[in-house]
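Hello Y.,

Per our agreement to keep a running log of every chain we model this quarter, I'm adding this entry. I've kept the format consistent with earlier entries: sequence first, then predicted structure.
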Amino acid sequence: MEKIIEYILKQTKKILSIDSPTGYTEQVADYIIQEYQSLGYSPRKTTKGGVLVEVSGKEKENGILLEAHLDTLGAMVCEIKGNGRLKLSPLGGLNPNNIETENCRVITKFHGIFEGTFQLENASIHVNKEFSDIKRSFDAMEVVLDEEVNSQEETKKLGIMIGDIVAFDPRTTITEKGYIKSRFLDDKLSVGILLGFAKYLKDYNINPKRKIYHHITVYEEVGHGACGTVPRDVTEILSVDMGCVGEGLDCTEHQVSICAKDSVGPYNYQVVRNLIKAAKESNLDFAVDVYPYYGSDADAAMKAGYDCKHGLIGPGVYASHGYERSHVDGVKATLELLKAYLTTID
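Predicted structure for the entry above:
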């Protein structure tokens, strides 16, 4: 299975390198489609821009839909200031404290990409005596473009407009000791895991009795990623997203997390129980947790009215919505839980 893990890490790094703030995901979705095709599958792009693919199964009913999301946090230009710098409006739950001094890219609709840095206004400590006391907010911060512009007119001449997307550097690295550090592991790490699971089914010629679909969604960060595109034969939806790591929770980056409840409500009791049973029988390193501030694609599908059971698992991720950290152990445990749950339970 080491080759599958290597493949997951390679794909995760590639996916992380493709900017995809929520609402700007076409390029990365096209890449995912090509990758599923290279594995021998027949994916299709949904009207919404996600990717749906049937990966295995013999039955024509009782299907299960695995969901992970490609969209990430990001921002949108909401004002071009008089000094030529940019004010931003967040896309998803982006926190300005977590991106101060980060390099970014302004993706224009017609005139290419411009680089810059997200800074506090008047960011020089040697000039600004109040630097440490200012509360970080999008109103107090700005993008300083790597262009010689000093007025609103000069910035507009570059082709930058209100509504342009701003993407932030992921700064991806995998350490010698197996730690995976990057922005946007939520949820591109789990997209990599689903690709790895699809490769595992092909490489080992495994075709479970139960039909399995993958839905790679593109609007999860704003709450409606999985509100549609659930095949008719699906009776269960399993989100594969980041597992929460923090005070009051049991999960670490080395484990697979099984979520019993998030801020929306409890996950299906039978699904949670069966996931725990599969993890125990396979001697996996896992944790069961209640996430205090969290919502998933499976939640979105339930809110949309789908009559399905639902669950949520994922590798443990620390510092969520910031510079996140996971570990290869958590990736392995998540892959093994998918194998145990989906290839042994009808």
